[in-house]
C-alpha cells in the first residue's frame, strides 16, 4: 500500500491514495490553517471507524442478518502533552435492520475489534478502545 502527501500551502496538504483518491488536510486557524479540510488525527478516527464498520457490516451479512444501515459514532480523548496520542476511544454502533439478533451484533463488533480491524488493533496499542451498540428495528 502506498500514499503520497503533497504540501499545498501554509499547513494544508493533499493526501493521495494508491487507489487514486484524494483528501485535503488542513490545520485549525490557531495553527495557521484555513480550516479547508480535516485534521490528520481526525482522519485516523475516520479510518478506525470505517475499518471497523466495514467488518461489522460484512460479518452481519455473512451471519445472514437483515442489516439495512450501520453508523459508528466515535468519541476520543488525547494525551495532554506531545505526542498527543489517542488515550481513549469509544465506538457506538447504531445498527438498523429487521429481526437483528443482539448477540450477533455484539459478536460482529467483538470479531472486528479483536481479530479483523487492523486500525483498531494498531491504535489499541496506545488507546483504550471500547464499544457499545444500539439496534434500531425496522418493520
Structure description:
Helix 1 (40-62) crosses helix 2. Strand 4 and strand 5 (86-98) form a beta hairpin. This protein has 139 residues and is of the alpha+beta class. The protein has three helices and six strands, in the order E-E-E-H-E-E-H-H-E. The strands form two sheets. It has a three-stranded antiparallel beta sheet with strand order 1-2-3, with no helix packed on it. A three-stranded mixed beta sheet has the order 4-5-6, covered by helices on one side. It has helices at 40-62, 102-116, 118-123, and strands at residues 3-9, 12-17, 22-25, 66-78, 86-98, 128-137. The chain is elongated. The protein is 32% helix and 38% strand. It folds into two domains: 1-38, Single Sheet (N-terminal domain of TfIIb); 40-137, 2-Layer Sandwich (GMP Synthetase, Chain A, domain 3). The model has no long low-confidence stretch (mean pLDDT 97).
- Computed Rg: 17 Å
At the first level of CATH, what is the class of the largest domain?
A: Alpha Beta
Q: Structural class, from secondary structure content?
A: alpha+beta
Largest sheet: 3 strands, antiparallel
The CATH architecture of the largest domain is 2-Layer Sandwich
Strand content of the residues, in percent?
35-45%
Strand order of the largest sheet: 1-2-3
* Mean pLDDT across residues: 97
By CATH's scheme, which homologous superfamily of the largest domain applies? K homology (KH) domain
Residue stretches low in confidence (pLDDT < 50, at least 5 long) are none
Number of domains: 2
What is the string of helix and strand elements? EEEHEEHHE
Determine the fraction of residues in helical runs and give it as a percent range: 25-40%
CATH topology name of the largest domain, in short, is GMP Synthetase, Chain A, domain 3
Instruction: Tell me the overall shape.
Output: elongated
Distance between the termini: 42 Å
Tell me the number of helical segments per DSSP (H or I, 4 or more residues long).
3
Number of strands: 6
Organism: Sulfurirhabdus autotrophica
Protein name: Putative redox protein
Pfam families: OsmC
